[in-house]
Amino acid sequence: MQIFLAFLLFLFSSTYVLLLQQLSAGPQTLQKILSVPLILIIIVFYHAGKNSWKIFTNPYDKWLFLCGMTIFIQLLVLTTNGLQSPFFILIHIFMIGISLLFNFSVAILFLLSSMLIIFISLSLSQDLTALLFTSPTTIVLQLISLLSIVPLAYIVSEQYHAKDIIATFLKKIQRKSSHCCLM
């Protein structure tokens, strides 16, 4: 169920980003549109910090945060030149964050949707062929960097979630032993 929900969320956010890009007059318009999700993200982080980050324990808030951040990161990368964006590393960092907050399969879906959005955007603007002929090494290096982050995100996710499983198991044992001692 979680993967299906993530798929729908990434489909919605990616479609929204492509629609915004096609309807905008240029990158400057998209950068102005980008200020709205940025303000919302700042407000969410302010309230999360004020309430000691309990906002991320509610599942609905986590999904809303994922949707907003996906739209924000994809718009930011697309408005700052796609594959040659200085913010391209945000895809890597957010993928590791998603693997910690959700799981590895949701992070892979984010990576695939982001790659798809970038290549669709490049092919719609006719820059893909020009980029292939002028600097093919850029595309190869960016693809290698995206693929190299996958094992790292997997290892980090498994280690993080393994500690969580062990902690819940130990809490169950502790509850059982405290119940046995009371009887």
* Helix proportion range: over 70%
Q: What is the molecular shape?
A: elongated
Distance between the termini: 40 Å
**Strand content bin:** under 5%
Q: Could you state the order of secondary-structure elements as H and E? A: HHHHHHH
Q: Mind summarizing the main beta sheet?
A: none
Give the class from helix and strand content and strand pairing. Answer: mainly alpha
Unreliable spans are: none
Number of discrete helical segments: 7
Number of strands: 0
How does this structure look, described?
Helix 1 (about 1-25) packs parallel to helix 3 (about 60-80), helix 2 (about 25-50) packs antiparallel against helix 3 and helix 4 (about 90-100) packs antiparallel against helix 5. This protein starts with a helix and ends with a helix. The protein has seven helices and no strands. It has about 180 residues and is an all-alpha fold. The mean pLDDT is about 85. About 85% of the residues lie in helices and about 0% in strands.
